[in-house]
Amino acid sequence: MKIAVFIKEIPLSNNVKIDPKTNNMIRSNEQGRINPFDEHAIEVALQLKEKYGGHVSVVSMGPPSFQMSLREALAMGCDEVYLLSARAFAGADTLATAYTLAQAVKKMGDVDVMLFGLKAIDADTGQVGPLVAEALNVPHVTAVHEIKQVNQAQKTMDVVFTSETERVVVRASYPLVLSVSDAGGNPRYLSPLKIKHVMKQDITIWNETDLGCDFDCIGTAGSPTTVTNTFVPKEAARAVKMLEGTPQAAAEALVAILRDQHLL
Ligand SMILES: Cc1cc2nc3c(=O)[nH]c(=O)nc-3n(C[C@H](O)[C@H](O)[C@H](O)COP(=O)(O)OP(=O)(O)OC[C@H]3O[C@@H](n4cnc5c(N)ncnc54)[C@H](O)[C@@H]3O)c2cc1C
């Protein structure tokens, strides 16, 4: 089974800086970390490989500093990594990001399972996985909580996803895209034996020409959305009302307030 995991590096701290001209996040050479949902995606990929055999590739689009996160993925046990990095990719919104990742899938060839995190916890859209599925015209399931079983003869997977009210089991044929939430349980630690080795391992870097990209579909040119402003919302001053009297009277007053506001 050929598995590809897509990981995004997110800033390590909340102290992110936004470029005042472009409103894009300033991705300097400071060390970031793998988006937590993507660590679950890596764990799921490794468990699939252990159970059904196969090969795990990891792909990230971003600046050269993202190589460190890719090396971490290697130290967790993934087989090979690709960094999609070029000036032309800068400023990509979710559509341009997904197009670029889909071009990488086409170049890799015959990928059975494409694993994404549920969402990146910095920009938080959760759009990239489903958009890659659309670009490749393959099925996708989001909010995947568990992979129950794989039928390799029929090329189907039974996966459990979480809806607002219940867990749902669906059978989907692959190649397919899965966006995982907490699937796979706790992501495994980096292997100390592998850490030294992966620091020397080559990382394949692809640019827009390597991927045969249509220049109108990448970076800012391929991005129909632009962030026009970012701001921290002002916290509204909250009214405080002290409830007086006996506990019984205070509880009755509280219930009356909640009823009044249609909260009960
Ligand atoms: C403040 C701010 C607000 C933004 N708002 C928007 C917006 O509203 N709409 C919009 O289109 N863009 C927006 N962007 C741009 C957005 O950060 C990029 O498009 C980003 O590459 C993908 O969006 P996301 O982080 O929401 O990913 P999500 O769709 O939340 O990510 C889901 C999964 O896709 C994979 N993935 C995402 N990015 C990459 C990557 N670069 N390489 C490999 N795998 C990846 C990971 O598995 C990840 O868990 C915003 C950027 C900033 C700085």
Shape: globular
Give the fraction of residues assigned to helices.
25-40%
> CATH first level: which class?
Alpha Beta
What is the string of SSEs from the N terminus onward?
EEEHEHEHEHEEEEHEH
Question: Largest sheet, if any?
Answer: 9 strands, mixed
Strand order of the largest sheet: 9-8-7-10-6-1-4-5-11
- DSSP helix count? 6
The CA-CA distance between the termini, in Å, is: 51 Å
Uncertain parts: none
Structural classification: alpha/beta
Under CATH, the homologous superfamily reads: HUPs
Mean pLDDT over the full residue set: 92
Strand content: 15-25%
Cα radius of gyration in angstroms:
22 Å
Task: Write the CATH architecture name.
Answer: 3-Layer(aba) Sandwich
Q: Ligands in the structure?
A: flavin-adenine dinucleotide
What is the total number of structural domains?
Answer: 1
Q: Tell me the number of strands.
A: 11
Structure overview:
By secondary structure, the protein is α/β, with parallel strands linked by helices. The protein has one domain (2-217): Rossmann fold. Helix content is 28%, strand content 23%. The chain has six helices and eleven strands. The protein has helices spanning 36-52, 67-76, 94-108, 128-136, 192-200, 247-260, and strands spanning 2-6, 9-11, 32-34, 55-61, 80-84, 113-117, 140-151, 156-162, 167-173, 176-180, 204-206. The protein has a nine-stranded mixed beta sheet, sandwiched between helices. A two-stranded antiparallel sheet has the order 2-3. β4, α2 and β5 form a beta-alpha-beta unit. α3 (94-108) packs across α4 (128-136). The longest helix is centred in the first third of the chain and has 17 residues, at 36-52. The structure holds flavin-adenine dinucleotide (FAD). Flavin-adenine dinucleotide binds next to α1, β4, α3, β6 and α4.
